[in-house]
Write a structure and sequence with these properties.
The protein is mostly helical. It has one domain. The chain has helices at about 1-25, 45-65, 70-90, 100-130, 135-150, 150-155, 155-175. It is globular and about 45 Å long. The protein starts with a helix and ends with a helix.
Length: about 180
């Protein structure tokens, strides 16, 4: 049942990204981060923040509480709860700058905390089940670099989506 709920949340996110990505002029899933769909001042800001990010954050927060006895599962779901939940309340500035407004700073800080939690989950799984789970840590690191290194910024959307897929897959596997 937990895997079905995680799959449902993941499919909801995929459908929302596909739909809202088409609604936003000039949006590219390769170049733009997920958060840029709800960037500050965007016509989609409130709809995506409170119709997509907040429900995902709340669902994952509930699961994190439910799974608090299982380290990897709790860390994965807490990661998603922090990342999506905080993104709902602290929209990123236009063009997702590394530095920007106070709101952008809180967005990036919560995103960093989210990815640290996910790295902890991948580390736990790698320790318990072997090195394939180390790949998740490298994906997170690669995505974080893409935010700061100009040559990689054109690929940050794709890198984030692959990273988020790995986090959702790790979450799915850890509760199974």
């Amino acid at each position: 049942m937990l895997q079905a709920l995680i799959a449902l949340v993941g499919l909801y996110l995929i459908a929302a990204l596909a739909y809202f990505g088409r609604q936003r002029a000039g949006y590219s899933h390769i170049t733009h981060t997920i958060s840029e769909l709800a960037e500050a001042g965007s016509p989609l800001e409130k709809t995506v923040s409170f119709g997509v990010f907040l429900p995902i954050g709340l669902a994952m927060a509930g699961l994190a509480w439910w799974l608090r006895g299982d380290e990897a599962s709790m860390l994965f779901t807490a990661s998603l709860a922090v990342g999506y939940g905080c993104a709902a309340f602290f929209p990123i500035d236009p063009d997702a700058p590394a530095l920007g407004s106070w709101r952008n700073g809180l967005h990036n800080l919560s995103a960093g905390a989210s990815y640290v939690l996910a790295m902890g989950a991948f580390e736990t799984l790698a320790r318990d089940h072997g090195s394939p789970y180390d790949l998740g840590k490298f994906l997170i690191f690669g995505f974080i670099l893409s935010v700061y290194i100009p040559g990689l910024r054109d690929w940050r959307g794709l890198l984030q989506r692959v990273t988020e897929l790995a986090i959702f897959a790790g979450t799915f596997a850890s509760v199974g």
